[in-house]
Glutathione S-transferase family protein
Amino acid sequence: MGLLQNGQWVDQWYDTDSSGGEFKRQDSRFRSWVSADGSAGPTGSAGFKAEPGRYHLYVSLACPWAHRTLIFRQLKGLQDMIDVTVVKPLMLSNGWELSDDQYGLDYMYQLYLKADPNYEGRVTVPVLWDKQTKTIVSNESADIIRMLNSAFNGLTGNDSDYYPEHLQAKIDPINERVYELINNGVYRAGFATSQEAYEEAYYKLFDALDWVEGILSQQRYLAGSTLTEADWRLFTTLIRFDAVYHGHFKANRQRIADYPAISNYLRELYQLPGIAQTVDFTHIKQHYYGSHDSINPTGIVPLGPEQYFTAPHNRSQFN
Ligand SMILES: N[C@@H](CCC(=O)N[C@@H](CS)C(=O)NCC(=O)O)C(=O)O
């Protein structure tokens, strides 16, 4: 794992020394938007109009942030409009590796340099790539799912809305809390390099999961009776939890399977049309257990746990 500095790839693990052993995630740098008419979004530059076949997603099936974008591509019926390259499961000294049909690239960092030869920083997935101007529109999953939620509606006729205006004031604070304490919280536990930083992340993570369990014991989804982006953003962390975060990231007060409401909710989401095919436990387990040398030096990938996401759930009690 590494980053780009002065146009060169440098192999380097996260710097946690300067933050007392705490893992800090870098902000995404490409922040433009695809919109229905090509006008600018809330950030970045304009000119990215929703058009069939123009955009390409680079994802890792292991990565929870990239997983969000694959889910929205399914939910919004964009499979024929946006094609996908899946990177290899392991992220080692050259960062993400791929077999790229478009430009014959071997490494993800080459795509970043193609977009911006002066790009400095981490090379992350997902990436939404514009084949027309040969640049990265966005490498921020939270923005990409919002684009997919609405920008292509005129082309697909699919106007299902996972960020409806009347629920935004509810969704935003939930997202913030879930991001900080759960989505990124598992990484803060797993990538901590001091006992103190780990313990702080651990306690906050399980407090937040207890809070989620409380909500989901009263209502079907995080924002009420409507399934929204807040649920999908949580889903990609929950589905990985028992297989990797519980063991590999030491988030082991309890499993998701031990939370009655959350585990039923997780099964409901998993069983919705198109979702199960976005979940790949081979990539997920290989990536985490095989890429983080300092956490799991042998690289041995555990065989368990046995999981039953297709078992019945009880969530219809709420509607
Ligand atoms: N804020 C970004 C985060 C993406 C991210 O951190 N992806 C990880 C994989 S799960 C990555 O590519 N990491 C490479 C690195 O940090 O060098 C988003 O949500 O899109």
The first strand starts at residue 2 and ends at 5. Residues 172 and 285 are 30 Å apart (CA to CA).
